[in-house]
Amino acid sequence: MLEEILPQKHITDFEVTHQFSSIGKRTVLLNALEITRERKEEKLILLSIEDITERKNALEIIKKTGERFSHLVKELPAAVYSCDAQGRLLFYNEAAVKLWGRKPEIGKDLWGGAYKILSPDGTLMPADKSPMAIALKEGRAINGDEIIIERPDGTRSVVKVYPQPEFGLSGEITGVISMAFDVTEQVRATNKLKQSESAFATW
């Protein structure tokens, strides 16, 4: 194996999986650099070998878990969607499509798929100031922030969102996943109750 690789003058992060007789199957990263000496007939190679077997196994588990998760949430009644570390939309289920009133483009739309996001007072909220964006930028979970979603047809819903940042093996933020619940009817009922209480108090 090394005889084929080492003749190259410079090798960076060359990944090799090999079955060793003593320690079994391992995946390693090779880095090599040929060092030039005054006596040209003398060839020296600086070689670094890093065992990344556990890291590879962990990443494979994460990948399989993600695939199972996507299958699981696809049919959930709650809207579920996720973004990568740059805020690009990675995944959404059918409940999210129903909530947004549109099918956003994976890898292109940012911070979700809402046509417009508004604050509870009705003012327009920039997408990069949305709870999803804040969870990613600040690396913290946001539990139940209330926003207003406006659809392309002009209809609106009051929504509670729960974005949670996701972290990689080294602690870096790799993205955000969020659930969203339409609470429009609950908000309307609460407002009617408050109005009734106010009217009764002044009666």
What's the structural domain tally? 2
Structural class designation: alpha+beta
Give the percentage of residues in beta strands.
25-35%
- Give the N-terminus to C-terminus distance in angstroms: 91 Å
- The unreliable regions are none
Description:
This protein is of the alpha+beta class and 203 residues long. It has 2 domains: 2-53, no CATH class; 71-185, PAS domain (Beta-Lactamase, 2-Layer Sandwich). The chain is built from 5 helices and 10 strands; from the N terminus they run H-E-E-E-H-E-E-H-E-H-E-E-E-E-H. Strands 4, 5, 6, 7, 8, 9 and 10 form a 7-stranded antiparallel beta sheet that branches. Strands 1-2-3 form a 3-stranded antiparallel beta sheet, covered by helices on one side. The protein is elongated, with a radius of gyration of 26 Å. The model has no long low-confidence stretch (mean pLDDT 82).
